[in-house]
């Protein structure tokens, strides 16, 4: 579980995260939604340690990320996988080398064991016969799947996804959504998805945090969404604008 | 004030660069790749520039000695002086400084653009999220490879500068090879070789570390990646000339 306690973030005078409190449970697809500039990207970056909070805590189980020593942070980060908006695949490496990379860095597996794990991860994301291709040679949807395979190559506990459907056609977007949901349930990991794709929200949004102007404006599930729209005009405006 | 904050940021950056690599085997593979890119891929340009610069220096020095300066008649100057001037200036200045200014353009811009591109495409963030010390991971192999390979290139360059002068002397007939070699031998001071090596190592460190630093802190997109390369080359050239002056003052 990941807990946010009174999380604040300033960039100069600009208050971009305002006193955020939330719990993200394992085995559940947790969605952070909101309009561009609402603070959701900063929130995710602060949670994975790419930004330092101005105040407040990010707790991974009982470990307060910002109170850990550098070496302890490095250990915790090895339990985190992240799918970036632009996939961030290493363009000098092939697909299989990208997936193998975390294993090469942090496991003591033999070459054969690593190869088996790479093939398992790639088949888990339904990507076969692409091992020797470079990121430049595969489609956007395939890149996302390689990104997911790389993120789960180590036995991670936390998965962060920044706009997993950006730049994808609707059909591929649904495939990625289903894949993320399956992986979350199968491995019991805490998954946090930053998205403004309402189809994703409706399909896999078991726990949703709606961000508006740096504040946690609403929290609930996709089942509560329609009801909440009636009393929450910002949420209603966001949902309607997304279709 | 901005320059002090930049220096501070550079020192903090270098502190992370010199942390122990996460995986020795991966570091070793990257080091070999970088040694190839920095050393072997730069060899042709160093050979061309050193040979031509050596020949030009010889021809111009001989031409100046042959012209009537009004101080002494040209016949009073022994042509062996040309070998002496070319030899000393090659070892002390031309080989380390000219070679490194050229390598700043080739290697420095390349490293800054490569790391800058990794930064804007979130590859650096991906390393960080994985728990890898990204500053050290992307920079240390380049810095170490530079410190190993650039001094080797400078040694090749100093040899070729002198050889280029010898070839020019022979082909143009402005002096005999004996005169050139006599001049070279008479002016050789072993201490100059030490100065050459000190300059080589310092300049190598400047080229690789500054370009890594400039690339790592790139923010934006393709335009900023290009700017990072240009800024890196400019800063490296200024720092090489500044440290050239400092080393010359301290060691000569």
Task: Output the structural class of chain B.
Answer: mainly alpha
Terminal residue distance of chain B: 33 Å
Helix content of chain B: over 70%
The H/E string of chain A reads: EEEHEEHEHHHEHEHEEHH
Structure description:
The complex is a heterodimer of chains A (243) and B (252). Chain A contains 9 helices and 10 strands. With 243 residues, chain A is an alpha/beta fold. The mean pLDDT of chain A is 91. In chain A, strands 6-7-8-3-9-10 form a 6-stranded mixed beta sheet. In chain A, strands 2-1-4-5 form a 4-stranded antiparallel beta sheet, with helices on one face. By secondary structure, chain B is mainly α. Chain B has one domain (23-66, 74-251). Chain B contains 9 helices and no strands. Chain B has helices spanning 2-17, 24-38, 43-66, 80-120, 123-130, 134-172, 177-187, 190-216, 222-251. In chain B, helix 5 crosses helix 6. The longest helix of chain B is centred in the middle third of the chain and has 41 residues, at 80-120. Chain B is elongated, with a radius of gyration of 21 Å. The model of chain B has no long low-confidence stretch (mean pLDDT 93). Chain A binds chain B through residues 48-50, 73-78, 80-82, 84-86, 88-91, 101-102, 104-106, 160, and chain B through 22-23, 26, 121-123, 125-126, 128-133.
What's the layout of helices and strands?
The complex is a heterodimer of chains A (243) and B (252).
Chain A: E1 2-11, E2 14-24, E3 29-33, H1 40-48, E4 55-60, E5 63-64, H2 70-77, E6 80-83, H3 95-106, H4 111-124, H5 140-152, E7 158-162, H6 170-187, E8 190-194, H7 198-204, E9 207-212, E10 215-220, H8 225-231, H9 233-242
Parallel strand pairs in A: 3-8, 3-9, 6-7, 7-8
Antiparallel strand pairs in A: 1-2, 1-4, 4-5, 9-10
Chain B: H1 2-17, H2 24-38, H3 43-66, H4 80-120, H5 123-130, H6 134-172, H7 177-187, H8 190-216, H9 222-251
């Amino acid at each position: 579980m990941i807990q946010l306690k009174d999380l604040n973030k300033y960039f100069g005078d600009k208050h971009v995260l305002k006193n955020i409190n939330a719990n993200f449970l394992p085995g559940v697809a947790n969605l952070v939604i909101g309009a561009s500039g609402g603070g959701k990207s900063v929130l995710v970056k602060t949670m994975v340690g790419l930004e330092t909070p101005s105040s407040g805590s990010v707790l991974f189980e009982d470990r307060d990320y910002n109170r850990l020593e550098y070496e302890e942070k490095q250990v915790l980060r090895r339990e985190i996988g992240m799918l970036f908006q632009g996939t961030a695949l290493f363009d000098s490496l092939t697909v299989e080398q990208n997936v193998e990379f975390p294993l090469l860095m942090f496991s003591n597996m033999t070459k054969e064991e690593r190869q088996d794990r790479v093939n398992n991860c790639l088949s888990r994301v339904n990507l076969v016969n692409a091992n020797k291709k470079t990121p430049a040679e595969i489609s956007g949807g395939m890149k996302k799947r390689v990104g997911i395979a790389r993120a789960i190559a180590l036995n991670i506990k936390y998965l962060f996804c920044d706009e997993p459907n950006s730049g994808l056609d609707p059909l591929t977007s649904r495939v990625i959504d289903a894949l993320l949901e399956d992986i979350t349930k199968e491995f019991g990991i805490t998954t946090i998805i930053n998205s403004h794709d309402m189809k994703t929200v409706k399909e896999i949004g078991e726990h949703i945090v709606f961000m508006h102007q740096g504040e946690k404006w609403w929290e609930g599930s996709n089942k509560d969404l329609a009801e909440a729209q009636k009393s929450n005009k910002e949420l209603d405006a966001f949902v309607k604008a997304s279709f | 004030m901005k320059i002090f904050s930049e220096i501070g940021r550079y020192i903090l950056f270098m502190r992370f660069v010199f942390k122990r690599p996460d995986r020795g085997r991966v570091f070793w593979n990257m080091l070999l790749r970088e040694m190839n890119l920095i050393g072997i891929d730069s060899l042709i340009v160093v050979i061309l520039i050193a040979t031509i610069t050596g020949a030009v220096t010889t021809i111009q020095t001989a031409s100046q000695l042959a012209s009537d300066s009004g101080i002494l008649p040209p016949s009073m100057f022994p042509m062996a002086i040309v070998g002496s001037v070319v030899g000393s200036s090659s070892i002390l200045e031309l080989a380390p400084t000219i070679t490194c200014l050229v390598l700043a353009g080739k290697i420095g811009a390349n490293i800054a653009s490569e790391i800058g591109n990794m930064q804007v495409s979130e590859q650096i963030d991906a390393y960080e999220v994985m728990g890898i010390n990204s500053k050290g991971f992307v920079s240390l192999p380049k810095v170490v490879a530079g410190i190993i390979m650039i001094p080797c290139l400078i040694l090749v360059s100093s040899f070729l500068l002198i050889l280029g002068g010898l070839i020019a002397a022979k082909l143009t007939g402005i002096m005999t090879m004996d005169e050139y070699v006599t001049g070279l031998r008479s002016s050789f001071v072993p201490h100059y070789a030490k100065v050459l090596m000190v300059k080589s190592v310092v300049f190598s460190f400047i080229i690789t570390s500054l370009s890594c630093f400039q690339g790592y802190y790139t923010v934006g997109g393709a335009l900023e990646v290009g700017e990072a390369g240009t800024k890196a080359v400019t800063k490296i050239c200024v720092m090489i000339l500044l440290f050239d002056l400092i080393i010359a003052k301290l060691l000569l």
